[in-house]
Amino acid sequence: MGKRILLLGAPGAGKGTQSKRLAETYDVEHVTTGDALRANKDMETEYGTPRSFMEKGELVPDGMVNEIVEAALADADGYVLDGYPRNLSQAEYLTEITDLDAVLYLKVAEDELVERLTGRRVCSECGTNFHVKFNQPEEEGVCDECGGELVQRDDDTEETVRERLSVFEENTEPVIEHYRDEGVLVEIDGEQTPDEVFDDIEAVLDDA
Ligand code: AP5
Ligand code: MG
Ligand code: ZN
């Protein structure tokens, strides 16, 4: 059985960046509610479209994501879960459907998060992340991996970023405290370089 890894962190903490590497290194599935919702932004559901929540930086209703996660985990032989759970009721749901081998929290200060998110550029073809300062592509606006066009996510404007951070504080920090209280949370310094962050994560997982 592959490792079952939960990666927690604020918007911009580097969950996507590290999950991509983890999925390759440990040969597990990258399960991410954010990407799944973006791929189905205009899907009509009983709650409305994902876009109507995401553009404002709000959480989509639990029912929308619980189903996505349950189906994805059922199909996976090991996974890194990124972007879920984001509130206590999702955390309870997760406890009912799976066990976890590691719970990691990427810790980054708020000022740094704002700069990372407003400067992020994403490949419209393959989803690889870049940053206008911290992680520049060889050619401006062009993906190093596939030549696709780099774009800014709709929710990466300063105003929406501030809203996402306040939603995180209110809804997701209690989830982090919940795992801390259970004694399973491992905190990782997310302000190091991506390579250093990855080394720290590997050191934890190789013991798990
Ligand atoms: P989602 O897509 O999950 O967004 P998020 O949690 O806000 O996180 P991000 O993807 O913005 O950041 P990240 O931690 O992945 O950082 P990244 O690696 O890209 O969710 C989007 C929306 O979907 C939500 O607002 C909500 O509406 C909805 N949603 C999703 N899940 C939901 C759920 N469970 N329930 C309800 N609603 C849900 O890095 C960021 C930038 O920093 C990049 O430019 C990168 O190059 C750079 N960077 C990364 N690491 C470093 C480093 N170490 N040093 C310097 N720069 C770095
Ligand atoms: Mg992400
Ligand atoms: Zn690309």
Automatic annotation (TrEMBL):
GO terms for molecular function: AMP kinase activity; ATP binding; zinc ion binding. PROSITE patterns: ADENYLATE_KINASE. AMP binds at T33, R38, E58, L59, V60, G83, Y84, P85, R86, Q90, R153, R164. GO terms for cellular component: cytoplasm. Residues 119-156 are annotated as: LID. SUPFAM superfamilies: P-loop containing nucleoside triphosphate hydrolases. GO terms for biological process: AMP salvage. It is an enzyme of class 2 (transferase). ATP binds at G12, A13, G14, K15, G16, T17, R120, Q192. Gene3D superfamilies: P-loop containing nucleotide triphosphate hydrolases. Transmembrane segments: none annotated. Its main location: cytoplasm. Keywords: ATP-binding, Cytoplasm, Kinase, Metal-binding, Nucleotide biosynthesis, Nucleotide-binding, Transferase, Zinc. It is found in: Cytoplasm. It catalyses: AMP + ATP = 2 ADP. Pathway: Purine metabolism; AMP biosynthesis via salvage pathway; AMP from ADP: step 1/1. The keyword Lipid biosynthesis does not apply. It comes from the Archaea. Its EC number is 2.7.4.3. Catalyzes the reversible transfer of the terminal phosphate group between ATP and AMP. Plays an important role in cellular energy homeostasis and in adenine nucleotide metabolism. Consists of three domains, a large central CORE domain and two small peripheral domains, NMPbind and LID, which undergo movements during catalysis. The LID domain closes over the site of phosphoryl transfer upon ATP binding. Assembling and dissambling the active center during each catalytic cycle provides an effective means to prevent ATP hydrolysis. Some bacteria have evolved a zinc-coordinating structure that stabilizes the LID domain. Monomer. This is Adenylate kinase.
